[in-house]
Amino acid sequence: MKYLAILLLSGSLNTQAGTPSTKVPKPQTTIGQIVNSQQFSIKALSAQPAEEANSILRSMYPNVNNNVVQLTGSVYYSVKVYPDKLDVHLPYFGRSYSPVSGTGGDPGYKFTSTNYEYTVEEKKGVYSIMLKPLDHKDINKIYITVFGNGSATIRVISNSRSAISYQGVIQ
Questions:
Q1: Residue 78 CA to chain centroid, in angstroms?
Q2: Residues 6 or more apart whose Cβ sits within 8 Å of residue 21
Q3: Is the pLDDT assigned to residue 19 strictly greater than 70?
Q4: Between β-strands 109-113 and 86-90, what pairing exists: parallel, antiparallel or unpaired?
Q5: Are 92 and 120 in contact (CB under 8 A)?
């Protein structure tokens, strides 16, 4: 039995060593390069509204667990960052302190900003991004944290609604 295991192991090593590698390693873009290029998208996979929305969420969405709403289905929720514009398409669950005009009855965050501030800080491989749309009065700031594995969190701070966070991935 011991000789069989050694024979099988040495045979597999010989066949791997005898075949040349046909894959050429592609240069990988790092998270830092993506974030600093100011051209990326964060796909939102789940939303976590403020605590005050708990009871309403549980009554409306039975799949809500620990105040987290899974964003499944055919709708693609995201924050897309470009050097010349910011596209935001995110659902909203929570409390509004004043009516938000221009939403067409949809309480989500859906807007394009062509005038926004963009700052990035890196600490131990984690990138903290602050977006401040200057041409959208409802949004105070959007904070994005991107981790080394590509996962990301988005936190939207509004002037007229309670805060909400999203978890997703950078693309």
A1: 7
A2: none
A3: no
A4: antiparallel
A5: no
